[in-house]
Amino acid sequence: MKYLLSLFWLLAAAVAQADPLPAEEVFKPEIHQSATADGYRTEVTIHFPDGYYLYADKTTLGGVVGEESRTPAEAKEDPYLGPTQVWHQPPTITLSHRDRADTFTLKTQGCEENVICYPPTSWTLQVPPAEVAANEAVMAQRATAANVEPADTAPAAQPSLFQTKKNEVLPEDQAFLVDAQKGTNGQLDLHYQMPEGYYLYRHSLKAELDGKPLALPLPEGERHQDDFLGEQEIYRNTLRFSLPDVQGKALTLHLQGCAEGLICYPPIQRQFHFEAGNSAGGLTTTPAVAAETPAAPPVVASSDAPSAIVQKLNDHFLIALPLVLLLGIGVSFTACVYPLVPIVTSLVVGKNTSTARAYRLISVYVLAMGAAMALLGAVFGIFQINLQVILQKPWITVLVALLFAVLSLSLFDVYTLQTPRWLQKPVD
User: Fold this and answer.
1) Which terminus, N or C, of the chain has the lesser number of Cβ atoms within 10 Å?
2) Angle at the Cα of 69 from the Cα atoms of 64 and 71, rounded to 5 degrees
3) Which of 370, 363, 318 shows the shortest CA–CA distance to 344?
4) CA dist., res. 227 & res. 201, Å (int)
């Protein structure tokens, strides 16, 4: 009898230890929200430990109508539901929506592998107050900018004679919002926020604490072929990471970013100060405020002189035309034109060549070249194509090099390049 009682208590203890955790303790959703050019971007990540999984088709996010994207799910032969789609790693649900919403409802269902399946569970998620305040500030600034015509503080990058208002960009204090908050465990949480179409360079993100460099645990960025700096790592939309307990009085953050296809901003600083008499406590922050010196306006990647010239030509188009003509004539006396002298001479010097015929040949040659270049320039100007950047792509450079290598073979009599006789005879 004593043996049976002992066995009973051992089994009871084993069962008690095997009691599953409540779903609320296993699956822990986290919500973040940021303002975008078209409205808002809400991200919900559902954290859970190894050995558990979630059903993708039983997970829904409600609260506002918008466009939803999710972490891809995996196919699974589930012992309870048969073939289905599940997440074995914490998924992220991203909702892009135009209307404002601070409260969301998450419904999901998950299981502990080979142990138990939980019933459907619901959560009511609230956007963190700091992010709500940041989003309200962004929207208020945009509303003000929409009602008041913005000052012409900076020309758009790569200005052209066909420039339009579609190239207007946000001031740096609206384009790059930075917030710092002390976490419950004493860590410092940093949050960078950008609208759609803007990005930050990973290499530009640096920090100083009381004037001394502070290492930042930056996550891996997105690979991006930048128009100005070549291949770079960048961050879009939002960036979050945490620092261990920060002991100091003044935190300075350095950053630099761009509006895609338009301009690159100068290096920017954001300063955050510890409250007086509190070495590790709350922070008085100045998000979206530049450093001690006044913020410089956005600048183009090249110097300002060409931009100013183009702007003046834009304002005085009729004056620009004869100036461009004179500039073209001036270019004809540069060294790169010298190789054309023997080529053109060979066309006009020959048997039975009169002065009038020579002028006609030269005029046809020059006007044809000029018309072709003018047409190309107009096309690239209208569509604002940066030909220099396009031609610097490696595969284009390789193709051009191969083309010249093949053409050079004609110098060694490998083959002969000759104008068709029916076209050459009238010229001769």
Assistant:
1) N
2) 130
3) 363
4) 13
Per the CB < 8 A criterion, the answer to whether 229 and 216 are in contact is: no
Q: What are phi and psi of 139, to 5 degrees?
A: -65, -35
Under 8 Å between Cβ of 16 and 71? no
Q: What DSSP state is assigned to residue 12?
A: H
For 265, the token pair is 């901003």
Q: How big is the chain, counted in residues? A: 428
Residue 357 has φ and ψ, to the nearest 5°, of -65, -40
pLDDT for position 295: 39
String of DSSP letters for 145-213: HHHSPPP--SPPSS--TT--GGG----HHHH-EEEEEE-TTS-EEEEEE--TTEEEEGGG-EEEETTEE
Within 10 A of 211 (CB to CB), how many other CB atoms are there? Answer: 8
104: three-class secondary structure by DSSP? strand
Q: What is the distance between the alpha carbons of residues 126 and 97, in angstroms, rounded to a whole number?
A: 16
The residue whose two tokens read 């009085």 is 249
Better-scored residue on pLDDT, 153 or 123: 123
Q: Hey, what amino acid is at 112?
A: E
How far separated are the first and last CA of the chain, in Å rounded? 124
What superfamily does domain 157-304 belong to in CATH? Thiol:disulfide interchange protein DsbD, N-terminal domain (2.60.40.1250)
CATH no. of 23-127: 2.60.40.1250
CA distance 1 to 312: 104
Q: Give the dihedral sign, CA 28/34/39/41.
A: negative
Parse the chain into domains and list their residue ranges: 23-127, 157-304, 333-427
Asked if 271 contacts 251 with a C-beta cutoff of 8 angstroms, the reply is yes
pLDDT digits (tens, 9 = 90+) for 63-118: 888 888 999 999 888 776 778 899 999 999 999 888 888 899 999 999 988 778 88
Q: The tokens of 129 are what?
A: 């107050």
pLDDT above 90 covers a percentage of the chain that reads: 16
Q: What DSSP assignment string belongs to 50-100?
A: TTEEEEGGG-EEESS--EEEEPPPEEEEETTTEEEEEESS--EEEEEESS-
User: Number of C-alpha atoms within 13 angstroms, CB side, residue 347?
Assistant: 18
**Three-class SS state of 333:** coil
Q: Is 157-304 the same fold as 23-127? A: yes
Cα 153 → chain centroid: 23
Strand partners, 198: 259
d(CA 256, CA 267): 5
Question: Is this prediction's pTM over 0.70?
Answer: no
